[in-house]
């Protein structure tokens, strides 16, 4: 009974390479199958020209989508940060950020990409102002506390020692 090993290899372009090898005799046959295109040279050139023609529109649409995605990420991150810092902030601290977030939510419903970018920047600036307040408050609290490490002995397990290398072979 003949044993034949058949392999199929499909590449990224849709080209199929088929090989068959008779394991008994070692004889091998190969064939390549390619899809026939029904496009003429003119059709291909027309498609390329259309792609070039709409490249600017595609770029503008990509910019709009990227801007909207960034705005959505900023909204999510800002709301998460406000929830995480809820007890450390007063309502008067949160109010400008919440107002900026609401403005951004309304702005992304429209189609003005520049307005979305501006509103996103406003939210980031408002959030940055809160971050500065939090860090200033944390810095003031640390300055008020005594430095426990300086008052005590440095006991982190580090020992200074002198040593001498002894070579048993000499």
TrEMBL record:
Keyword Repeat: no
Keywords, comma-separated and alphabetical: ATP-binding, Chaperone, Nucleotide-binding
Keyword DNA repair in record: no
Compositionally biased spans, kind Low complexity: 139-153
Sample GO molecular function, one term: ATP binding
Recorded coiled-coil stretches: none
InterPro entries documented for this protein: HSP70_C_sf, HSP70_peptide-bd_sf, Hsp_70_fam
SUPFAM superfamilies for this protein: Heat shock protein 70kD (HSP70), C-terminal subdomain, Heat shock protein 70kD (HSP70), peptide-binding domain
Comp. bias regions, Acidic residues: 159-170
Region described as Disordered: 139-170
Name by which UniProt lists this protein: Hsp70 family protein
Organism name: Candidatus Avoscillospira avistercoris
């Amino acid at each position: 009974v003949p044993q034949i090993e058949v392999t199929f290899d499909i590449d990224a372009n849709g080209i199929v390479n088929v090989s068959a090898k008779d394991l008994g005799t070692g004889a091998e046959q190969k064939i390549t199958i390619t899809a026939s295109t029904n496009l003429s040279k003119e059709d291909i050139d027309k498609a390329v020209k259309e792609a070039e023609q709409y490249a600017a529109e595609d770029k503008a649409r990509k910019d709009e989508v990227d801007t909207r995605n960034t705005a959505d990420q900023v909204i999510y991150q800002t709301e998460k940060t406000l929830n995480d810092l809820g007890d450390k902030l007063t309502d008067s601290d949160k109010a400008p950020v919440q107002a900026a977030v609401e403005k951004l939510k309304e702005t992304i419903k429209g189609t003005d990409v520049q307005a979305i970018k501006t509103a996103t920047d406003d939210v980031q600036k408002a959030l940055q102002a809160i971050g500065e307040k939090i860090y200033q408050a944390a810095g003031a609290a640390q300055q008020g506390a005594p430095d426990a490490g300086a008052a005590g002995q440095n006991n982190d397990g580090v020992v200074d020692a002198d040593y001498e290398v002894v070579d048993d072979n000499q």
